[in-house]
Automatic annotation (TrEMBL):
Catalytic activity of the protein: (R)-2-hydroxyglutarate + A = 2-oxoglutarate + AH2
Enzyme Commission number(s) from the entry: 1.1.99.39
Protein name as annotated: D-2-hydroxyglutarate dehydrogenase
First-tier enzyme category under EC: oxidoreductase
């Protein structure tokens, strides 16, 4: 690494900045960006600039290199990285007892399924079942003896119709990357995996509307759209494994929500199969359609408890040519907050991600993930921010980002920072942010909370949690600050009831007091089915129960999840 000392006023720094090249997200130049580059850093040293009144009082470093693009695939971890085969952590999940009204699988059932799906679509091999029974965190484990792999909506309909008539419980499964124990059986539920339903049905190059089957892996859709000059409106670290049907069913948020909004906005239509096999064709491709109740919204975020999503129609934004990424440091949480409001004001329409991680998250990534380098190695910082801008005019975007960074330095909000100058740097910055869940898994047991809170209150719960736990566990915070979404993780060597009792119900009560949500984006699954009242009123939960009963009277769809069992199982015979 080369450092060059600069003795300049802020005017000089502006000049210096305007000479820097930004990396540019042109997907056609993906392969060009793959060679590794040495990183040059320009450092503006604090003492050198202090004598000027209105110049930067802190220093910022900029990585320098040539402008090349970043492929979606390099921003995330690949599918295999999600599978942690070597660990088996004891579960701390409280398991509700099996509902005796559900039937047990019989030989006749297996024969029936084989008739519909053929031998290949009926999975009974132990190894495959072991994978499908275990969640990504290896915290929840079911004991299903059967996984069905339909290849069409018609097959899904036939399976569900049969399961409903036999009162066989089922769990819909996508990429099995869910983090709340929703995607795996609790007992012996039949796993219905839509992985084989992975065709792209149509793409309209003018409107950007994509219609595809639910089993399409998010990353494959990203790659497909890239060739068409479009992007997916959502992006998350699990993109290599998660499926669009799973994304819709969890209403996944991710890294781009700040720019493109939630799936309630971008999903235009769905095809869903109800518990009794009825196929609901709501697969519209219209931006506007006010004919009656918009029922697709019921299924977005319903975590497989109301129906199986088989097809999705989604509005995709055009791929823009100029993408910039900055990795920045702040000394305190208040500065992170102020930086966010400044970024919204000053970057405006080009802001496409605003993510944060605290020093504990950074330390964890540096310790547990291979090949990770601290982009700001000169000193430790309390908070790190990843800001992405996406726009259509390179010079304009660059000017905006530079002006924003300069004013943030001058006002003392930023203490350090780097701007990625090529695809490798950009992907290494994303790897730090997106690698945190994987690093946490490598560190041992994880108690994972996903809270929506007013941004000004967000870090208070982290501080309070640290105080409560002392040295018993490592409290790690990161998340989608731009969306008011905190990922509060407590990392310990192993699961321990005494640690859990320090965390819960405190974390839920605290969130409820702030009128926050105990699940911002991961859903309730099994983990929080009985905690819904912390975020929803009794009347609301009752109405949810009534809807569940209407759509799934036998309660066969993903039982024990989402709603408290007292509600979802009442009246089930
Ligand atoms: P699964 O895990 O298989 O299932 C999730 C739920 O949806 C289950 O309740 C299941 O029953 C149901 N389901 C799945 N497919 C269907 C279907 N076709 N029809 C009906 N129900 C179905 N989440 C975020 O929101 N933002 C993030 O940034 C994010 N980052 C992550 C990073 C990592 C490393 C990991 C491991 C997870 C992350 N997640 C994130 C959580 C997870 O990836 C998302 O919830 C994702 O949307 C789940 O998709 P999936 O296909 O894996 O679904
Ligand atoms: C993330 O933002 O990294 C995901 O939601 C996963 C997590 O919370 O660990
Ligand atoms: Zn997240």
């Amino acid at each position: 690494m080369t450092y060059r000392r600069l003795k300049h006023s802020s005017r000089n720094l502006v000049d210096q900045l305007s000479n820097l090249k930004f990396f540019n997200s042109s997907r056609s130049s993906i392969s060009a960006g793959l060679q590794s580059r040495s990183i040059q850093t320009f450092e503006l040293v604090k003492e050198d600039v202090c004598y000027h009144k209105h110049i930067v009082s802190r220093h910022i470093c900029f990585l320098k290199g040539s402008g090349i693009g970043i492929p979606a695939s390099l921003r995330g971890v690949q599918s295999n990285a999600f599978r942690i085969h070597s660990r088996n952590l004891a579960s701390v999940a409280t398991v509700p007892s099996r509902n005796p009204s559900f039937a047990m699988i019989s030989c006749d059932d297996i024969s029936y399924f084989k008739k519909i799906l053929g031998e290949k679509g009926v999975v009974q091999e132990e190894l495959k079942l072991d994978d499908a029974n275990t969640d990504w965190m290896r915290k929840y484990k079911g004991s299903s003896k059967l996984m069905l792999q339909p290849r069409s909506t018609h097959e899904v309909s036939e399976i569900l119709n049969y399961c409903n008539s036999r009162c066989l419980a089922v769990v819909p499964q996508g990429g099995n990357t869910g983090l709340v124990g929703g995607s795996v059986p609790v007992h012996d539920e039949v796993i219905i995996s839509v992985s084989s339903m992975n065709n792209i049905i149509s793409f309209d190059k003018v409107s950007g509307i994509l219609v595809c089957e639910a089993g399409c892996i998010l990353e494959n859709l990203i790659t497909f759209l890239d060739n068409e000059g479009y992007i997916m409106p959502l992006d998350l670290g699990a993109k290599g494994s998660c499926q669009i049907g799973g994304n819709v069913s969890t209403n996944a948020g991710g890294l781009r929500l700040i720019r493109y909004g939630s799936l309630h906005g971008s999903v235009l239509g769905l095809e869903v199969v109800l518990a009794n096999g009825t196929v609901l064709d709501m697969l519209g491709t219209l931006r506007k359609d006010n004919t009656g109740y918009d029922l697709k919204h019921l299924f977005i975020g319903s975590e497989g408890s109301l129906g199986i999503v088989t097809k999705v129609s989604i509005l995709t934004p055009p791929k823009l040519s100029s993408v910039n990424l900055a990795f920045l440091a702040c000394e305190d949480y208040v500065s992170c907050q102020k930086l966010l409001s400044e970024a919204k004001r000053k970057l405006g329409e080009i802001l496409s991600a605003f993510e944060f991680l605290d020093v504990s998250a950074m330390d964890l990534v540096l310790k547990h993930l291979d090949g990770i380098r601290d982009p700001l190695p000169s000193s430790k910082h309390n908070f790190y921010i990843v800001i992405e801008t996406t726009g259509s005019m390179e010079s304009h975007d660059k000017e905006k980002l530079e002006a924003f960074l300069l004013s943030s330095m001058e006002s003392g909000l930023l203490t350090d920072g780097v701007i990625a100058q090529d695809i490798n740097q950009a992907s290494s910055f994303w790897r730090i942010r997106e690698g945190i869940p994987e690093a946490l898994m490598k560190a041992g047991a994880v108690y994972k909370y996903d809270l929506s809170l007013p941004p000004e209150k967000m870090y208070d719960v982290v501080d309070e949690m640290r105080e409560r736990l002392g040295t018993a566990a490592n409290v790690v915070a990161y998340g989608h600050l731009g969306d008011g979404n905190l990922h509060l993780n407590i990392s310990a060597r192993e699961y321990d009831d005494s640690i859990l009792s320090q965390i819960e119900p405190f974390v839920y009560e605290w969130t409820s007091k702030q009128r926050g949500s105990i699940s911002a984006e991961h859903g309730l699954g099994l983990m929080k089915a009985n905690k819904i009242h912390y975020s929803k009123s009794a009347e609301t939960v009752q109405l949810m129960g009534a809807m569940k009963k209407l759509l799934d009277p036998n309660g066969i769809l993903n039982p024990y999840k989402v709603l408290p069992t007292s509600i979802s199982q009442s009246g089930v015979n």
